[in-house]
Amino acid sequence: MDRTLVRQLRALGIDPTEASASPEVLARLLGQVSRTYALQRRLRQRLREQGRDPEADGAPDATSVPSRFERFFHLASDAMFTATLDGRITGANEALAEMTGLAREDLIGRTVASIVAPTSLEPMLEMRRTKFRDPEAVTRYDVELLHVDGSVVLVELASQFERLDGRPYEILAIARDIRERRARETALRDQAERDPLT
Q1: Tell me: the pLDDT tens digits for 55-91?
Q2: Predicted TM-score of the model (pTM)
Q3: Distance (Å, rounded) from C-alpha 74 to C-alpha 145?
């Protein structure tokens, strides 16, 4: 892992060994950073509403978290995105842009459903319903993303609701390309069927 990224993760209070872990761990870390940022932003807004100067009152600087978070977000090799509860993408990193062939700017405002293969829509909607039933749930499932060239990218998607004041307000998601892993699994299964000694 890049030394700069390790420093940035430590500055955010994140153990760098966790950052290369599963999509579930990354989703949890993304949630921690997002929550911190939202709380800092709310605190500063409340101070302003009371006619107080957030800097003079020693309120945390919300701008330092997003800039560090954004570097982490954009350096990740896994695709990461945030979306509204109705599935409209509000943030996306370069890895998602590469997986879909769309520019990051073009992803913002699109629905998640517009970048998912039709065969993956129902499982995705079922996982969303699961999160509404249990807002603490981290759902993990395979999804086929659509690339603009017509190809499909098989990913493992981990997502969860981000909550503020106990209520869900956005979706945090991480998608890991699993095409190579599936190809290896298939090759091993085929080999085992041909040669029972392996």
Answers
A1: 665 555 544 445 566 777 777 889 999 999 999 999 8
A2: 0.65
A3: 19
